[in-house]
């Protein structure tokens, strides 16, 4: 434990020194740091997706630095101190885990989640269960979080079969909108189809964001293989017909299945 404390205080000291002495660090504000923090978060996410533990360790360090940077600026602006941040999260965790720090009994993970949402509602007199969903979340992640939060108050389908029926219903409504040739209605119904598919993914215990990214990467890999094959044939994809490109695509898929 002492080693952890010493390492943390070492980083705090370095942050103080950088803020006082480095021209770049001295100029930063919470607003100039924001896009950099978002970038670091995605880099951490990429490392996690790749099971890159060395990368995860490095990116966690970068995230820790950003946290201390915001805390340092908060102290300079006389808004809060680092210890306020640390004690705040400690108190929150203790309050939201009464089954650990009090005499509340829970039957399992689901009841823990339900209690968590109920306790969040008590904090700051929140008016909506969905109030804690950040507006800037990517749409797929946001849809998943909205559905998870609605579930914690009992607004949830009984089984995956009913959810799939809803998917089919939404697809039917999309087809009707397409027949009407109403772009506004098409967009609305297409959004409903996506939302219902994300809901179905939850019931299949599938991470919709994660599997979509895997599909993105698979397409990129296969498409780049197509480009390599075309170049090996002395041509470029844009010079081929769709039929020719489709033949190369099917060959790439076949090769990937064999490897």
Strand content: under 5%
The largest sheet, given as strand count, sense and whether it forms a barrel, is:
none
Principal-axis shape: extended
- The CATH first-level class of the largest domain comes to Mainly Alpha
- Calculate Rg over CA atoms: 25 Å
Number of strands: 0
Poorly predicted sequence stretches spanning 5 or more consecutive residues: none
CATH topology description of the largest domain? Helix Hairpins
Question: What do the pLDDT scores average to?
Answer: 93
CATH homologous superfamily of the largest domain - what is it?
A: MazG-like
Structural features, described:
- The protein is mostly helical.
- The two termini are 47 Å apart.
- It is extended and about 65 Å long.
- The model has no long low-confidence stretch (mean pLDDT 93).
- It contains 12 helices and no strands.
- Helix 8 packs across helix 10, helix 9 runs antiparallel to helix 10 (183-203) and helix 11 packs across helix 12.
- It has 4 domains: 2-93, MazG-like (Helix Hairpins, Orthogonal Bundle); 96-130, no CATH class; 133-206, Orthogonal Bundle (Helix Hairpins), CATH 1.10.287; 210-258.
- The longest helix is centred in the C-terminal third of the chain and has 25 residues, at 208-232.
- The chain has helices at 2-21, 23-27, 30-49, 53-76, 82-96, 98-101, 109-122, 139-151, 160-180, 183-203, 208-232, 242-258.
């Amino acid at each position: 434990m002492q080693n952890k404390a010493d390492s943390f205080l070492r980083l705090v000291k370095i942050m103080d020194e950088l803020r006082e002495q480095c021209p770049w660090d001295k100029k930063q504000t919470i607003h100039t740091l924001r896009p950099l923090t978002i970038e670091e978060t995605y880099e951490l996410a990429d490392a996690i997706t790749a099971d890159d533990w060395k990368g995860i360790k490095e990116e966690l360090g970068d995230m820790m630095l950003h946290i201390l940077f915001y805390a340092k600026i908060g102290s300079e602006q006389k808004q809060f101190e680092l210890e306020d941040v640390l004690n705040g999260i400690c108190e929150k965790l203790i309050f939201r885990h009464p089954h650990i720090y009090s005499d509340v009994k829970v039957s399992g993970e689901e009841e823990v989640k339900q209690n968590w949402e109920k306790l969040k509602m008590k904090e700051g007199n929140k008016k909506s269960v969905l109030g804690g969903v950040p507006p800037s979340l990517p749409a797929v992640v946001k849809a998943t979080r909205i559905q998870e939060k609605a579930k914690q108050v009992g607004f949830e389908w009984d089984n995956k079969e009913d959810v799939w029926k809803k998917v089919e219903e939404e697809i039917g409504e999309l087809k009707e909108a397409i027949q009407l040739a109403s772009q506004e209605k098409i967009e609305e119904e297409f959004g409903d189809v996506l939302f219902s598919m994300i809901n179905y993914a939850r019931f299949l215990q599938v991470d919709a964001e994660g599997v979509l990214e895997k599909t993105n990467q698979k397409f990129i890999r296969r498409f780049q293989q197509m480009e390599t094959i075309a170049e090996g044939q002395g041509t470029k994809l844009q010079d081929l017909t769709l039929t020719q490109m489709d033949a190369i695509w099917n060959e790439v898929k076949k090769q990937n299945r064999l490897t």
